[in-house]
């Protein structure tokens, strides 16, 4: 089992920045892929960004490219999502997810999920 705990959400004005953290514990492995997803009210959970511990490969949704950066600290078993130039449409609950394989952009491929952290961007 893998436990994931997100933190760092909050309220920010449009154009501002936030950094989300996802601390992993339990049976973590360097072979895991880690992803960030988000879900706005009335919408499906959507892919935001992902990273593979091995090689540090990353992938982003088109809507966040150039604004968000995913990174990881192996020593701390923590994944980060740096969010810059935030827009009101970025408002959502952000979830961290893990899978014992290379990263994926599909929420159906992930086995472990955190409880989510709310990000609200005011206009």
Helices and strands, with pairings:
Elements: E1 2-7, E2 10-13, E3 18-26, E4 33-39, E5 46-52, E6 58-60, E7 68-73, E8 78-83, E9 92-99, E10 112-113, E11 117-122
Parallel strand pairs: 2-11
Antiparallel strand pairs: 1-3, 3-8, 4-5, 4-9, 5-6, 7-8, 9-10, 9-11
Structural commentary:
- The protein has no helices and 11 strands.
- The chain has about 120 residues and is mostly beta strands.
- The strands form 2 sheets. Strands 2, 4, 5, 6, 9, 10 and 11 form a 7-stranded mixed β-sheet that branches. The chain has a 4-stranded antiparallel β-sheet with strand order 1-3-8-7, with no helix packed on it.
- Strand 5 (about 45-50) and strand 6 form a beta hairpin.
- It is globular and about 40 Å long.
- The N and C termini lie far apart (about 40 Å).
Mean pLDDT: 93
Strand content: over 45%
Alpha carbon gyration radius = 13 Å
Identify the quaternary structure here.
single chain
Low-pLDDT stretches are none
The main sheet comes to: 7 strands, mixed
Query: Residue share in helices?
Result: under 10%
Helix tally equals 0
The overall strand count is: 11
For the termini, the CA-CA separation is 40 Å
State the secondary-structure class: mainly beta
Q: Name the overall outline.
A: globular
In N-to-C order, the SSE pattern is EEEEEEEEEEE
């Amino acid at each position: 089992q893998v436990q994931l705990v997100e933190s760092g959400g909050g309220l920010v004005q449009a154009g501002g920045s936030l950094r989300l953290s996802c601390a992993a514990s339990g049976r973590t492995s360097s072979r895991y892929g880690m992803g960030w997803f988000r879900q706005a009210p009335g919408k499906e959970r959507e892919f935001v960004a992902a990273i593979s511990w091995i090689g540090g490969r990353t992938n982003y949704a088109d809507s966040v490219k150039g604004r968000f950066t995913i990174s990881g600290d192996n020593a701390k078993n923590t994944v980060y999502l740096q969010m810059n130039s935030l827009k009101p449409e970025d408002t959502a609950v952000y979830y961290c997810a893990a899978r014992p394989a290379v990263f994926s952009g599909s929420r159906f491929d992930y086995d472990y999920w955190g409880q989510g952290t709310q990000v609200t961007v005011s206009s």
